[in-house]
User: What shape does this take?
Amino acid sequence: MKVVTWNINGIRTFRGGIRKALDSLDADIICVQETKVTRDLLDERTAIVDGYNSYFSFSRGRSGYSGVATYCKDSATPFAAEEGLTGLLTNHEGAVGCYGDHTEFSNEELQLLDNEGRAVITQHKVMCQDKMQTVTVINVYCPRADPEKPERKRFKLQFYKLLQYRAEAVLKDGSHVIVLGDVNTSHRPIDHCDPSDIDDFEGNPGRKWLNGFLRGCRQEEEKNEEKPDEASEVTYDTHSGKFMDTFRYFHPTRVNAFTCWSTLTGARQTNYGTRIDYIFADCQLAKEQFVAADIMPEVEGSDHCPVWGKLSCSLLPSSKPPPLCTCHLPEFAGKQQKLSRFFVKVDQKSIQLEQKDALPGSQEKGEKRENLNPSGAGNISGKKPILTADSVVPKGKKVKTVKTSSKPQGSLLSFFKPKLANVVSQCEKTPDLNKVTSSNNPHKESTTRGEVLSVTGRMTEDTELVSSPQLCTSSTTMETDEQMKTKAEHLTSKTTVGHSATKKGASLGFWKSVLHGPPPPPCCKVHGEPCVLRTVKKEGPNMGRQFFVCARPQGHASNPEARCNFFAWVGTGK
Assistant: This one.
C-alpha cells in the first residue's frame, strides 16, 4: 500500500492529463490539496478518471480558493468517505463517524471550520499479517496564519484542535489513522531553511500544537546509519502525542529536506524552503506497517513537492464506492436530472438576517464581498447591473433616455492645455459685429467677415479644435452653412500643412513624458548584474512604491550563488 500527498496549487497543475499525472505518482491513494475548484466548476475530466474513484471537498464561501481531493485506485476503493471534520456536511450513509468532543466549539465555529473545503476522510480495509484491519486516511489542507489578520491565527489553531479531536476519536474507535497533507507549519528547526531568522521559533503556537500532537522520534540504532546528506547528531524531546512523523521516523537527521519553496523569489533553485507537508500515522501503524517514507523534490509543477509513504499491508477494495464519490453526482451518473433540482426554496427572513449580521472574522475580505454581494449588487465589479423583478418597467410607460452629445470628440491634448479666454470673448462679440456690418455698410460686410474668419483660423491653429463655424456662429449671417464650411476647410488645410510636423513632434514628446517606461535597472554591488524591479504590495506607507533587488534566487546568506542584500528605491538612488 502506497499513499502520496501533494499540494498541487490548482488542479490545472495536471496539464498533461490527470490520469497521466496520477499514474506517474504510482500510488494507491493520492491526496491533493489546494485544488481551487468549486462544486459548480467541477468537470467530468477532473472528477471521473479511468481507473480511479475520487472524493472532493469544496470551498463554499470563495471561488478559486482552497479545496482538497482524494483519488483512490479502483483496487483501493474505500468503504466509507466523508467531507469535512465536523460531520455537519454529511447527510448520507457511508460516513466515517467518530467526531470527538465539540463542546469547546460553537455551532458557528464548526460551520466556518468546514466552510473552506479543507478535509476529506476515506476509510479502507487492509490485510495486515493475515488480519483484516481498518485504516482511516484524513486528507487536510490546514489554514495559513496571515500575520496581518489576527483572526486567521485563531482560525488556524481552532482547525488544528478540531483535527486532533477527530483523529484521536477515530483512533480510539479501533481504526488506524493516517493524517496527511499541507499542515502549513514547519515542526523543527531542521525543517526550516533559516530558523534563526524567525523570532521565538519554538514559541510558535502551531509548533507547540505539533509537539503535543506528535510523539518525538528518538534515534533508533537501526535507523541511525550515517549518510552523506545527514547531520551527525540531532536529539529531539519525546512527547506524549499519539502520532508520528513518518519522514522523520526514517530520516531523523536529514537536513535540507524541504517540500515548499517561494516561487516569487525562485527559492527552489537554491533549495531555500520549508518542510510543511507531512504524512502522520498513529505510532503502532508507523512502527509495524510503514516500510519507507520520503519526499519527491524532483517533481515540479507546483510550489510544493509530493511526499510518499509505503506500508507493508495490502488493501481490500470495497465492491461499491461510498455516496461521496463523484461518480454518484447527478451530472456524472448518467441520470436524467429533474427540473426542480435547479430551484432552491429560499427563506426571505433568513436572508435579511444574514445581510444584517456581519460575517465572522475568519473569512477574508474577498469572501465577505462574495457572500454579501453574490450577484454583483452595488456594481462592485464594474459590470452592468442585472434587472430584477422590481426594476422591470410597466407596459405602456416610456423610459427616459439620456441623449448623448452630437458634438465631435475633441483631441485629448486639449485637456492638458490652458483655455484661451480672449479667443472665447472674441467669439461672443462676433454676432454684434455681424449685425453692425449688415445694417450700416453692406459693402464692408465681406471684409469684416474675412477678418472674423482669419481670427477663427488662428484659433483653430492654437487650440487644435474644430473649424470656425462651430466655434463662432451668428444668427444673422447672410451666408449659408455650406459656404462657411467651404471657407473653413480651405483655411484649415493651409494651416494643417504648415504645422503637421510640429504637431506630431509635440504629441510624441507629450506622450513620452506621460507614458515613460521603467527606469534602467542598476547593477547589484556583489555580483555586478542588473537588478529586477519589484513593487510593494503590502499595505502601509510604502504600498505601491517600486524598488530594485538582486535578480538571483533567494537563498541562505552563506550561499554565494544566492541573492545578495542589494536594495534601492526607485528614484532615490538609495
Summary: The chain has a mean pLDDT of 77.
